[in-house]
Amino acid sequence: MKCALIDLDETLFDHQNSSRMGLAAMCRRFPALCGKTLEELEDHFWQVLNDNYMDVLAGKLTVDQARINRIAKLFEFCNAVPPVERLEELSELYKLVYNESIRPVVGMPEVLQCLRENGYQIVVLTNGFIEMQLGKIKACKLEAHIDYLVTSEEVGVKKPEEAIYNEAMRRCGATTEETIMVGDAWETDIVGAH
């Protein structure tokens, strides 16, 4: 038995493209955000996401509330006053453009096919939420290649904590010696798996 644990965002799914497209749409709607580059906006946006992640996981914030909070903080980052009455509209715009821009990372469908042909069970292992991550997998047309989805939402811990890797291997019936990890983040994907 062989098991391949594969991260989703920036490994299978081109998250950066979707994120930048959503941010660019917000910049077109509100030029006050144009004082920073898309890269700077994106870095700040995801730093705030990481800061709020455990509150969302614990149910203290909804995903939508966290997104609105991130957008407000983008305005502050750009030394602009957040348009409080339009934050929900901007959140919906970001989400719409993000979802319309979903695509797989170049070459990953072929990598999954190769793993499958070599006898691997494939587990997407992600620090995301079940519904959102399933949507990305379906939009990328990767569901036929994947045996299991293991998320931090369902396990209650996130990568790099050991329990999430153990749950993924349990589902495959695989040992550590039979398992590989593929991901883009050194700390959460590679060090955590090690």
In short:
With 194 residues, the chain is an alpha/beta fold.
Radius of gyration: 18 Å
CATH 4th-level superfamily of the largest domain: HAD superfamily/HAD-like
Please state the structural category: alpha/beta
- How many domains? The number is 2
Residue fraction in strands: 5-15%
CA distance, first residue to last residue: 19 Å
Total number of strands: 4
Can you write the helix and strand succession as a string? EHHHHHEHEHHEH
What is the C-level CATH assignment of the largest domain? Answer: Alpha Beta
Q: Please, could you describe this protein's structure?
A:
The chain has 194 residues and is α/β, with parallel strands linked by helices. The chain has 2 domains: 2-14 and 103-193, HAD superfamily/HAD-like (Rossmann fold, 3-Layer(aba) Sandwich); 15-100. Helix content is 55%, strand content 10%. The chain has 9 helices and 4 strands, in the order βαααααβαβααβα. It has helices at residues 15-29, 38-57, 63-77, 87-100, 108-117, 130-139, 152-155, 162-172, 186-193, and strands at residues 2-6, 120-126, 148-151, 179-182. A 4-stranded parallel sheet has the order 3-2-1-4, sandwiched between helices. α6 (130-139) links the parallel β2 (120-126) and β3 (148-151). The mean pLDDT is 93.
Give keywords.
single chain, 194 residues, Rossmann fold, four-stranded parallel beta sheet
Topology of this protein?
Blueprint: E1 2-6, H1 15-29, H2 38-57, H3 63-77, H4 87-100, H5 108-117, E2 120-126, H6 130-139, E3 148-151, H7 152-155, H8 162-172, E4 179-182, H9 186-193
Helix pairs in contact: 1-2, 1-4, 2-3, 3-4
